[in-house]
Automatic annotation (TrEMBL):
Signal peptide: none annotated. This is YciI family protein. It comes from Roseomonas haemaphysalidis. InterPro entries: Dimeric_a/b-barrel (IPR011008), Sec-metab_biosynth-assoc (IPR051807), YCII (IPR005545). It holds the Pfam family YCII. Residues 1-88 form the YCII-related domain. Belongs to the YciI family. PANTHER family: PROTEIN YCII (PTHR33606:SF3).
Amino acid sequence: MPYMIETWDKPDAGTLRAEHRAAHLDYLAQNAPRLLACGAKLTDDGNDGGGSFYIVDVDSRIQAENFLAGDPFSQAGLFQRNSITRWRKAYLDRTSYLPKV
Protein backbone atom coordinates (compact mmCIF):
# COMPACT_ATOMS: atom_id res chain seq x y z
CA MET A 1 0.00 0.00 0.00
CA PRO A 2 1.76 3.11 -1.19
CA TYR A 3 2.39 6.18 0.95
CA MET A 4 3.42 9.64 -0.22
CA ILE A 5 6.06 11.32 1.89
CA GLU A 6 6.75 15.01 1.37
CA THR A 7 9.46 16.85 3.27
CA TRP A 8 10.37 20.50 3.69
CA ASP A 9 13.94 21.46 4.56
CA LYS A 10 14.79 23.84 7.35
CA PRO A 11 15.59 27.34 6.06
CA ASP A 12 19.13 27.84 4.77
CA ALA A 13 19.90 24.12 4.99
CA GLY A 14 21.65 23.77 1.62
CA THR A 15 25.01 23.01 3.21
CA LEU A 16 23.48 20.36 5.49
CA ARG A 17 21.73 18.77 2.48
CA ALA A 18 24.99 18.73 0.50
CA GLU A 19 26.93 17.19 3.41
CA HIS A 20 24.54 14.23 3.68
CA ARG A 21 23.56 13.80 0.02
CA ALA A 22 25.89 10.84 -0.69
CA ALA A 23 24.60 8.89 2.34
CA HIS A 24 21.02 9.78 1.35
CA LEU A 25 21.56 8.47 -2.19
CA ASP A 26 23.07 5.25 -0.80
CA TYR A 27 20.01 4.86 1.43
CA LEU A 28 17.71 5.27 -1.57
CA ALA A 29 19.69 2.67 -3.52
CA GLN A 30 19.44 0.22 -0.62
CA ASN A 31 15.68 0.77 -0.52
CA ALA A 32 15.05 0.84 -4.27
CA PRO A 33 12.57 -2.09 -4.17
CA ARG A 34 10.29 0.05 -1.97
CA LEU A 35 10.50 3.21 -4.10
CA LEU A 36 7.78 3.80 -6.65
CA ALA A 37 9.03 7.37 -7.14
CA CYS A 38 11.21 9.89 -5.35
CA GLY A 39 13.20 13.03 -5.94
CA ALA A 40 14.10 16.49 -4.76
CA LYS A 41 11.58 19.29 -5.08
CA LEU A 42 12.77 22.06 -7.39
CA THR A 43 11.81 25.65 -8.07
CA ASP A 44 10.54 26.51 -11.56
CA ASP A 45 14.03 27.53 -12.64
CA GLY A 46 15.39 24.08 -11.67
CA ASN A 47 17.17 25.13 -8.48
CA ASP A 48 16.86 23.35 -5.14
CA GLY A 49 13.35 23.70 -3.79
CA GLY A 50 14.23 22.74 -0.24
CA GLY A 51 12.58 19.37 0.17
CA SER A 52 11.91 15.91 -1.15
CA PHE A 53 9.03 13.77 -2.36
CA TYR A 54 8.80 9.99 -2.11
CA ILE A 55 6.18 7.39 -2.93
CA VAL A 56 7.07 4.24 -1.01
CA ASP A 57 5.44 0.84 -1.30
CA VAL A 58 5.18 -0.36 2.30
CA ASP A 59 2.57 -2.24 4.33
CA SER A 60 1.72 0.41 6.92
CA ARG A 61 2.08 4.02 8.05
CA ILE A 62 4.58 2.86 10.66
CA GLN A 63 6.77 1.40 7.93
CA ALA A 64 6.53 4.69 6.01
CA GLU A 65 7.51 6.57 9.18
CA ASN A 66 10.40 4.16 9.73
CA PHE A 67 11.54 4.62 6.13
CA LEU A 68 11.68 8.38 6.63
CA ALA A 69 13.36 8.06 10.03
CA GLY A 70 16.09 5.91 8.48
CA ASP A 71 16.92 8.46 5.78
CA PRO A 72 20.27 10.16 6.51
CA PHE A 73 18.65 13.51 5.68
CA SER A 74 16.14 12.91 8.46
CA GLN A 75 18.81 11.68 10.86
CA ALA A 76 20.88 14.81 10.18
CA GLY A 77 17.93 17.04 11.13
CA LEU A 78 17.47 18.47 7.63
CA PHE A 79 13.69 18.48 7.63
CA GLN A 80 11.63 21.23 9.18
CA ARG A 81 8.47 19.20 8.66
CA ASN A 82 7.05 16.30 6.71
CA SER A 83 3.74 14.85 5.61
CA ILE A 84 2.91 11.16 5.20
CA THR A 85 -0.30 10.28 3.33
CA ARG A 86 -1.65 6.95 2.12
CA TRP A 87 -1.89 6.97 -1.68
CA ARG A 88 -4.04 5.11 -4.21
CA LYS A 89 -2.16 4.30 -7.39
CA ALA A 90 -4.30 5.32 -10.37
CA TYR A 91 -1.61 6.07 -12.98
CA LEU A 92 2.10 5.45 -12.68
CA ASP A 93 4.69 5.71 -15.43
CA ARG A 94 1.92 6.30 -17.97
CA THR A 95 0.18 3.07 -17.00
CA SER A 96 -3.37 2.91 -15.63
CA TYR A 97 -4.00 0.86 -12.51
CA LEU A 98 -7.67 1.81 -12.39
CA PRO A 99 -10.18 -1.05 -12.34
CA LYS A 100 -11.76 -1.79 -15.70
CA VAL A 101 -15.43 -0.84 -15.75
